[in-house]
Design goal:
- The protein is of the alpha/beta class and about 260 residues long.
- The protein is built from 8 helices and 8 strands; from the N terminus they run ααααβααββαββββαβ.
- Helix 1 crosses helix 3 and helix 1 crosses helix 4.
């Protein structure tokens, strides 16, 4: 079962527990943000309603108290699992942003953003304002326990490069072979090359479908929102090809 589908079922099970009287036990363990995700988010409503009706029908057909209690227990455990899968990140509003634009960038609805952030007037966003953004499917932390702050969302073109002559013009005997513009040694799984006028060197980025990377390098062909992903193997870099319209989230430096 797909990850998101699994979460639908988990939350729907929690909905059963809420329906058959386990609501207080479930909600007592949840923060307001988690309650929002379990109860208010529209995308779970249909699945929760369907399972709710099935549970009530079974109860009307004579299901014993043991069955109801088991459903309540499962619902409580499911709520805990689902709450742990919810991640709230923060987005720093930029000039020209609208709630609609932000909702599209993060794949959530305007209504969800307005409700979660208690925005009386969604048309009055301020530059620098921090918004809570719910995310269910992405690994945002990159190993950090802190909630990430997204400063900018880009639509990027991705390519791949290596340390070799075909990409950098350098051979292994060159003293700067494998050394990035920032002075670090290029590392697969960490290093990307960027246009510093768009993504400052040293920035941490989350690339959709790739993961968390560090902007450590530059390249003569890397202009605008284009990003070059470092790889050790030439064939893998060639096979990577060109990937267009990939979302890239530029994260704030939490160490500053």
């Amino acid at each position: 079962m797909a990850a998101r589908g699994k979460k639908w079922w988990i939350t729907a099970a929690a909905g059963i527990a809420l329906t058959i009287g386990a609501g207080e036990a479930v909600q007592a363990e949840l923060t307001p943000a988690e309650e929002w995700a379990l109860v208010e988010h529209w995308s779970y409503a249909a699945e929760a309603w369907s399972l709710r009706e099935a549970a009530l029908q079974q109860a009307n057909e004579g299901a014993g108290t043991d069955t109801v209690a088991a459903a309540a227990t499962f619902g409580s455990e499911a709520a805990e699992l689902d709450a742990s899968a919810i991640q709230l990140l923060q987005y720093q509003v930029n000039a020209g942003d609208t709630l609609y634009k932000i909702s599209k960038a993060f794949g959530v609805t305007v209504e969800d953003l307005q409700a979660l952030n208690t925005l009386d007037n969604p048309n009055r966003l301020k530059v620098g304002q921090m918004l809570e953004i719910p995310q269910l499917d992405a690994e945002w932390s990159g190993g950090s326990a802190d909630r990430p702050v997204v400063q900018r969302v880009l639509s990027s073109t991705l390519t791949a490069y290596t340390a070799g002559k075909e990409s950098t013009g350098k051979t292994p005997s060159h003293p700067a072979y494998g050394i990035t513009r920032s002075g670090s040694k290029a590392e697969e799984g960490r290093t990307v090359a960027v246009d510093p006028s768009i993504i400052p060197l040293g920035s941490t980025v989350l690339i959709e479908g790739i993961g968390v990377r560090k902007a450590e390098d530059t390249g003569s062909a890397i202009k605008g929102a284009r990003i070059d992903v470092f790889m050790n193997d030439l064939k893998e870099a060639v096979d990577f090809g060109v990937k267009k319209n990939v979302k890239v989230f530029v994260l704030a430096d939490r160490s500053a």
